[in-house]
Amino acid sequence: MPTRREFLMVSSGVVAAAGLRGFAPRTRAAAAVSVAGSLTPYLDPMPRLTDNLVDITAGGSQTLTATLVQRQVHSQFPKPTTLFGYTRVGGPAADTASASYLGPILMAKRGHPVTVNYVNNLHDQDYLSVFGNANSYTQWTENHTGTGILTHLHGGFVAGVNDGNPFASSPAGYGSFQTADYPNEQPAAGLWFHDHLLGATRLNVVAGLAGGYLLRDDWDSGSRADLPQGPYELPLVIQDRRFNADGSLLYPTNPASLNGPWIPEYFGDVMLVNGKVWPHLDVEPAVYRFRFLNGCNARIMSLKMNAPMFIIGTELGLRPTAPLPASRLTMAPAERFDVLVDFTRLAGKTILLQNSNPPTPISNPAPNLSQVMQFRVKPVASGGALKTVITTLPPPEATLTELISIGAPNPRGLSGVRNRMITLNEVGANTPSWTMNLNGAGYMSATPHVEQLNVGEVEDWYYVNTTPDTHPMHTHLFGFTVLGRYTFDVAGYVAKYGTTHGVPRQDVTTLVPFLKSALQPPAPEEAGFKDTVKANPGQVTVVRAKFSLPTTATDTPQRYVHHCHIVEHEDNDMMERFEVS
């Protein structure tokens, strides 16, 4: 019988190397025929998602409709690809083939609340139009008409009922809508919204339901003379996908030898940027601000280019104090980097953005997919181009300063803050009943866990990874600062505390005899507030947060979730509830 990792390769078309990451050699299941080799890279221009930008910085409301769209993802496909997308009045029509399936970009401002209505125009047959069968769709989803949606503002500081999570809200069926109030009470940041339907997040997201939410504030206003603005500030949403020869999306929705519809991870054989396969972008010899988002279902990327790069922000806002020169950007799904790229000395050059396997200890089972996109630098810059890189950023928010001032974590419980353990488990890895969980119980367990958090308290969360994968762990509602990582004796810890459902949550002090290193500092690019962190195999990853609620949360407890953002893991079943009172 095929193993869990064999199905990993269903979507890659590449044979897995024996002894992958030190585990037993694995073969692969039969893969679909790849059409990637028939597509010419860098043929099509990259869509500028800011062409579909909605300025709601003054507040107000906006209505987005989730519907079928037709988009030409590569000009060599014989016809447009049928996908899901969010449309709006005044934006590209559903049949505008040249547009991106991603978007729109909603640009809001701190202190100016907005309301977004997400209308569901997806019929049952629309799902079939994208995926070809519905066997995978009904697993664990709640009752609704048509293809359900539940839109989550990723990184948003919002009340539970507005968060778009299955613990606080029910999905909107066909002909219905979801209303979300966003108070915008957080610093400027590059947020995004995407579907979060219980049991089918991986499907609605791979089908196209994602857009941008660009939050401004007085400092990062979009009009500073020392930061790129207008056409020089662009989101770059990078995703891997597979397509059939006719251009239709390929996702293995019902592998016959696994339990139900599950595949462990989905890996594509082409890269898309802003919804276009291997595009090019014409740039000037100037400084650009690119907001990178890893929008892949499961792929961890390590991006590089032969142009100077400077990280100025992470998921939840600007870095403290100064830009960070970077030779590469290592990003797990849902991680974001706000980056200045300096093309000023590259006039007339062609620059490639390339991907490679990330360095250890990050575990990345995806076959390498090196080509991403091409930048074509024009001979001269226009009058509005910025020629220098900013050297000073604003001081950190007071909460970040407070969290850092507490000092190092202490697994013995002596740091003065509460320690909370989150164990990451893989169960039945070589059986048809493969699943994932947190703290020994999946989200759909008969007795699911509900973490209890209190407003005003500071906690250190210890992500104890007992699996062979790197998991991008994402928290709704709150951001955190990464404190560092310990290595630990996985086999010994699992032997002592493991059960048939993995390792249930323990007191953090139980880790102490199994730790194999002192605390290793976080990577320099992890400085600042984040909402997603890489929890690597063989490591205990520690983050620190202080809990609060927005003014729109008028009662308690407020309900949220946290989970792995490899969306195949999230759906099966690596997600846990928490309440904030």
UniProtKB/TrEMBL annotation:
GO molecular function: copper ion binding; oxidoreductase activity
Family to which the UniProt record says this protein belongs: Belongs to the multicopper oxidase family.
Residue span, Plastocyanin-like domain: 142-217, 428-580
The protein's name in its UniProt record: Multicopper oxidase domain-containing protein
Pfam families: Cu-oxidase_2 (PF07731), Cu-oxidase_3 (PF07732)
Source organism superkingdom: Bacteria
InterPro entries hit by this protein: Cu-oxidase-like_N, Cu-oxidase_C, Cu-oxidase_fam, Cupredoxin, TAT_signal
